[in-house]
Every structure is written in structure tokens, then in C-alpha cells.
Design a protein that fits this description.
This protein has 371 residues and is α/β, with parallel strands linked by helices. It contains 14 helices and 8 strands. It folds into 2 domains: 157 residues, Rossmann fold, CATH 3.40.50; 203 residues, Dehydroquinate synthase-like - alpha domain (Dehydroquinate synthase-like, alpha domain, Up-down Bundle). Bound molecules: nicotinamide-adenine-dinucleotide and fe (ii) ion.
Amino acid sequence: MKTFGIKPDIKAGEDSLSFLKTLPYKKYFIVTDDMMVQLKLTDKIIENLNSDCKIKIFSKVEPNPTVDIVQKGIVDFITFEPECVIALGGGSPIDACKGILYFGDKIFNLLGKENKRLFIAIPTTSGTGSEVTSYSVITNGSSKIALADDKMLPNIAILNPEFMKTLPKKVVADTGMDVLTHALEAYVSKNSNPITDAMAMEAMKIIFENLFDHYKDRSILEPREKVQYASCMAGAAFNNSSLGINHSIAHSIGAKFHIPHGRANAILLPYIIEVNSNADIRYAKVAHALGLPASSAAEGKCALKTWIEIMKEKMGIQKSLKEYGVDFEEFRKLIPDILIDIKKDICTTYNPNQLSDEEYIRLLLKVYYGE
Ligand SMILES: NC(=O)c1ccc[n+]([C@@H]2O[C@H](COP(=O)([O-])OP(=O)(O)OC[C@H]3O[C@@H](n4cnc5c(N)ncnc54)[C@H](O)[C@@H]3O)[C@@H](O)[C@H]2O)c1
Ligand SMILES: [Fe+2]
């Protein structure tokens, strides 16, 4: 049996923060990072909450959030006992918040307390789609662990395009390529279905038509808003169909060499398309839908890969780990650990091709040298 859920409720648009005005709660816990406080985006949340409520802000989240950060957040969550929890930021604060709630709720249960809290996610990158997924990715030492549980799915997601105006170009490039990777992996996943296909394909069309415009000028509403919708749709697609080895490898090398998540995915993407031979027809269908040459599966797959390589170049994304600056000896020594990480990662299960160790090693060397 396949299960498909379209959740959570989504409020979208420039006026979407006004939804917060309708909330009746007395205690709000905001999980975010320091950048959101500096940019005064937290103030925009607070302005919309009722004036007599108590607010606690946990702003210690850093990119690629660690178990340590989650533990610190749990202490604040447990002691404050909020009625509503708001995650504000990119994937890092939203994922950290999910970890805090997942383990914090367990502790409340052990204490015999029922903690009915509303969970609202407000993304400020486009992005991970974490606002509509049951996934949380937490860094534990030199590995990243992708947890999946419906208990971490937000109750409400608020898509406010105003928050994306301050994004640095580099973050737009990385997170936009993350969206493309989510949609493409969801589309070629062995667990895809017509509903996930529709969302993934539309997300890819939007990225194709809008990501570079958004990258060039974040002040223009239309591409900014469209890319935000694409991020959300790609998240909903992969939440139901799963991701693939692009993400398994990105999780591992991202944690080991401190590469931002979207950048790791973008470096890998052309090589993963190449290796996933079982999905050739699906890649060609994507190329066809994007208006790229696709008179045969081989031509379509090649055209899709070439378009991605051009996009990467236009947005200053490196072709290889070598170009990114990863030291070869360090990389070579960690290959056995990377293989262990890939096999443990939940994203590996539904990848179109299952690779042997030798094939993984060959792939990793290609990604390193860019050949
Ligand atoms: N839960 C999921 O489904 C899922 C999916 C993919 C990735 N992830 C995880 O999400 C994390 C990456 O999240 P991300 O790519 O959104 O980046 P991020 O949250 O790590 O943010 C990257 C940087 O951009 C800054 N930033 C964010 N929004 C900004 C804004 N509006 N203006 C200015 N600066 C802003 C942040 O302060 C940070 O310095 C990784 O840990 C990754 O593994 C989770
Ligand atoms: Fe991702």
C-alpha cells in the first residue's frame, strides 16, 4: 500500500504573516539563527503576535545543525513549555527545530505531560522544502543523519516571499540547486507516483524558467515568489517519493568537508545523472518538458546534464570537489567512511540504480576530479 499525504496547511504571499495575528496563544518559542535576528526578520514575526504573549527566542542554530545545538534547544523548549513553536530560517533552523520537538516531546511524555504545541515553519531560503517535509538532517560528528518521522511535519507552513529579498547570491545558487536536486531525485525515484511526478515536474519547470532571474536580482517579486513555490512543491514531492544517492553522498561529504548542502548537491548532480542509467527515459522526459533536445533517451539525458552544467557555471558553482578545494589525501582516506554513510542513509533506498562499492568509488573519484 502506498500512502500519500498533502500536509501541512500552507499560507502564502506577501501578506501571509498576518496569519500569525489570528493565533490565540500566550507562549511562543522561536527557533532561528543569529542572521535572522540581525536582519530583524524575527521582529517581523513578533510584530504579528498578540501583544501580551511571552516569547522565547533560541537563535543558536548554525548551518548544518549539530546534535549539540539540538540538545541546547531541547533544554529551552522543556523549561519554557510553549503553546506554539515557530521555526524561522533556512533548512538549518527548521531541521534543528524539528529535532528539538521530536526529542523534547519524548521527554514531556516521560514526565507524564501532554504537550500539545502548534508547529509553524517559516522558510527564509528556497530551499530545502523542510517546511513541508517529515525529514530533519542533523550533523553528528563527521556524519549527517537524515531522520524521518511524521511527528516532525509542521502543522502550518508560511511562505512569505519578502523574507527572500536579503538572500546572498551564493545562497540563492546553492539552495536553488537543492530544489532542482529534490525535484529530479523525486521524479526518478523508484517510489515515485503520478502525484509526486506532477509536483516534481512543475518545480523543475519553475526552476528552469526562474532560478537565474532570481539569482540575478532578488528584488524582483515574480521569480522570487515562483522559486519559493518550487521549493515547497519539490519538498512535498520528495517527502512522498523519497530522494536518492545525490543526497546520500551530499550528506556525507557535506559533513566531512563543511560544504553547504545545496552546493554539495549541485557539484554532484551531473555525475549522478550519468550513473543512474535505469532512469535514462525519465531524465529524457524532463528534458522534453523543459523544451531541451530529446529525440532519444540518450539525447534527452545529455541535454539535461548540459543545461545543469551551464546553470552551475553561470552561478559560479564548482565542477568538482578538487575545484571546491577539498584536499585529495583527506578525501581518499575518508572514502571507506563515505561508503558506510551512503549505505546507512535513508535516501539510498529508492535510487534508480543500486551501486556496488567499486561503482561508488569510481563515481566519487569522478566527482573529485571532475571528469
Ligand atoms: N529537512 C529536509 O527535508 C531537508 C532537505 C534538504 C536539506 N536539508 C538540510 O537543510 C540545511 C541547509 O539549509 P539551507 O540550504 O536552507 O541553508 P541554511 O539554513 O544553512 O542557511 C544558509 C545561510 O543562509 C543564511 N540565510 C538564510 N536565510 C536568509 C535570508 N533570507 N537572508 C539572508 N541570509 C539568509 C543563514 O543565516 C545561513 O548563514 C542542511 O543541514 C541540509 O542538510 C533538509
Ligand atoms: Fe536537499
